[in-house]
Each structure stands twice: as structure tokens, then as C-alpha cells.
Amino acid sequence: MANILKVLKGTKDILPQNIDMWHFIEQKADEVFSKYGFKEIRTPIIEVTELFSRGVGDTTDIVNKEMYTFEKSDRSITLRPENTAGVVRSYIENGMSRLSAPVKLWYKGPMFRYERPQAGRQRQFHQVGIEMFGIKQPTADAEVILMAVNYLKSIGLNDLDVEINSLGCPKCREEFKNKLKEVLKPYFNELCEDCQNRYEKNPLRLLDCKVESCKKIFAKPEIQEVINSDFICDECAEHYTELKLYLDKMGVKYTENKLLVRGLDYYNRTVFEIKSNNLGSQNAVAGGGRYDSLVGQLGGEPTPAVGFAMGMERLISLLPEKEPKKLDGYVVSNFPVDAFVLAEELRNQGLNVELDLTNKKFTKQLEKASKVAKYAFILGEDEILKHQVSIKNLEKGNQITVDRHCCVKMLEI
Ligand code: ATP
Ligand code: MG
Asked: For atom 24 of ligand 1, which residue has the closest CA?
């Protein structure tokens, strides 16, 4: 036998028996985000590589290690590792800054990162996310966090932890970065290789390091003192305080985490993550924040913005499994032509209906019906002559015979 080809490492089929759950979380996203005035946007999965090196930042793991990049006709092209950069590109390219603010967009779809596959981490995974453009006030940050929490509630996830932090603005952050570098300098040689590389380019990212020996260094009192110092300027502090006021008012529970810096370069002021205790080490279901400089950085009019992305596989792994949906009906008959016609009549009346296409024995058909459908629509000789149908409730076992034209109505009774 020829070699059986397998799905690529770190990628997965989403099989028909699991698709109901995907439809459920996608429909809820549409429903909840629409309530807040968000509209869906679909951008291409491939973009020019430069979009991500400029947009996500070339000091990030995503750009340095994780991108799927290839050449085609002398252009470097990348499978999107995230979708904020793509949405920002589209916002600029399609002149959305001329629309009255805020412009509110949401998306869903596959993302690609060349990471080590493990529980909760795939190379092709899916995100649902939102971006809001044009509002610098913390009301936007509050609305976005509130909406994320409400979306999670709507799919049945009520007890997740929201963590927030403020990264300040480029100005006040610069001072913080310098202080951090100064206090970490004596420990430079003890830091892991990644941290050593980030020390100059992106020192804030060090706080995000998961390596135990690095964590120990960050726990030292003189370093904790810098981490816990209120480095953000008055304006940034006011923004952050107001955000918290709105969250408190709306009953959104959160904890402040000074170590929360997020992996991407483009954030300023608000950053947040939503985590679950039931996910092991890959415990973040959502990440987001404010990115006021990105639109300008990618060539648009400077426009404040805030957004988040959620990992759909991680959401699904937290939800109880759903029984696959059954068909409404299965036509059972020894008269194949009449059965064929009835099945189509029922479909035209809005039911999901199948029938046996191979002329199997009546009892076999009934057996199949009870496995796959809620009702069997039975057409015997008598029923055909009288223009009737017998409907058997396959869960309860009871059966009634009704006029053919009202058999769908009978299901509602
Ligand atoms: P993590 O800390 O898990 O690596 P991240 O900071 O890289 O997350 P973001 O870029 O903020 O993640 O993406 C938002 C969400 O997308 C994450 O909170 C997570 O739920 C999901 N996600 C990110 N990378 C993966 C992956 N490789 N496989 C599955 N889900 C992922
Ligand atoms: Mg990551």
C-alpha cells in the first residue's frame, strides 16, 4: 500500500463531529460583538513579510523565530502569525480613517506560528479578535475588556481571571527600561540566552521570561523595587485609573500584574490577558491592549487603537463536549421514489432530512434512522394511498399518522 500522508505536525483537522462547537463560538462572537457595533472583516491569510517585521516588531519571537515565510516572484510573503497588522493595513489601505470614529472591526480565522507543538500550542491555530480605531480615551479600553468578558460568559466561561497592566507611553517607558537595564546589569551573565538578546533591544520583554533562573533574578528585592515602582507619567496614570474605574463600575473583576508586558512591540498604556486555571502552562485564552502608534508606524494617519485576540482552540478545550447534532428526520420506506420525493418536500419545509439511497430493508432503514435522526418519516403502502405520513419520535418511541401536507406542523406540537 502506498504511504499514507499525514497532517503536518502542529496542525489539526477540525472534524465534522467537532464542528458544532466551532460554529457555536463563531456565532456567539458575531452576536456579542455586533451588540457593541463591531463589524466582521476578512483579510488575506498571506501578506507581505514587511507588514509583520514593521508591524509586529523585529525584536519579537513571532517575527524572529515563528513566521512561515516564502518567496514568490521576488516577493517575500508570510502566512499571518496574528491579525492586528493585517487589519491595520486594511484600515489604512481602505481609507477607514475617513469614517467617523470609532471604527470597530472583528475577525476570526487561522494564524500560523512555527512554535514547538504541545498542549494548547499549535502551528496552525485559530483566533477570534477585535480592533477598535480612533478613540484614545480609556472608555475604549474598558468597552473592549468588558466585551471580551461578556463574550466569554456567553459561551459559558464565567470564572476566568482578567489581568491588566499599564506599560505607559514611549516616553515614560524609556526611563523605566533604563532603570530596569541598570538594575539587571550585574546579573547579565546569569540571564538566559533569550533574555541576554532582549536586554538591549526590548528589555521589558525580560519580565515575561518563563525560565526559572531568570524568574529568581527578577524576584530579587532591588529588581522588584524597580518593577513595582510607579514609573508611568501622570497622563498615563490617569488613563489607567479611569480604565479601572469603568471596570469597577461594570463589575468586571481584574487583578493588576506588573509583570504583564505582552510579547508584541506595539502596545502602549493598557495591556491585558485573560487566563484560566484549567489550561496548564498554556493558560492564556486572550491577550490584548492599546497600540496607539501602530497605524502611524505602518504609514497611516496616527490613530489610537485598542484590541484583543483569543485562541479558539483554547476556548474550546475549556468547554464541555457537545453531542453532535442529529438530523431532524430520516425517511423510511420500501418505495424509493416516494421516499425521495418526501425527503425533498421536508427539506423544502426547513428540516434537515436524509433517506436511504441504496434501497435497504425497512428494518435496516429504521435502525439507521434511530441512530442519526430525531424523527422517522415512514411511508408504507397505506400512507402513500391515503397521502399520509407516519411520524415516529425516535427518542420517545411514540408514533402518529398525519396528512402529508401537515407533517412538519405536527413536529411543533
Ligand atoms: P502565549 O503566551 O500562549 O504564547 P501569545 O502572547 O503568543 O500567547 P497572542 O499573540 O496574544 O498570544 O495571541 C492571543 C491568543 O492566541 C493567546 O492568548 C492564545 O490563546 C492564542 N495562541 C497564541 N499562540 C497560539 C498557538 N501557537 N496555538 C494555539 N493558540 C495560540
Ligand atoms: Mg506565543
From this structure: 121
Q: Would you call 216 exposed, middle or buried from its count of C-beta atoms within 10 A (0-12, 13-18, 19+)?
A: exposed
What SS3 state is found at 132?
Answer: strand
* pLDDT given for residue 1 in this prediction: 66
d(CA 408, ligand 2 centre) in Å: 51
- Residue 121: domain span: 16-169+232-317
- 61-92 pLDDT, tens digit each: 889 899 999 999 999 999 999 999 999 999 99
Point out which residues pair with 76 in neighbouring strands.
Answer: 71
Beta bridge partners of 144: none
Number of domains in the chain: 2
Query: 235: CA distance to ligand 2 center in Å?
Result: 30
Q: How far is CA 215 from CA 78, 190, 210, 261, 282, in A?
A: 33, 11, 7, 14, 17
Tens of pLDDT, residues 191-244? 999 889 888 888 888 888 888 999 899 889 999 888 888 889 999 999 999 999
Give yes or no for residue 263 CB within 6 A of ligand 1: yes
Residues 298 and 353 in one domain: no
For residue 287, the ligand 1 atom closest to its alpha carbon is 11
What spacing in Å lies between the alpha carbon of 381 and ligand 2's midpoint?
Answer: 64
CATH of the domain at 391: 3.40.50.800
Q: Mark whether 370 and 263 lie in a shared domain.
A: no
Are 151 and 299 found together in one domain?
Answer: yes
**Do 165 and 254 sit in the same domain of this protein?**
yes
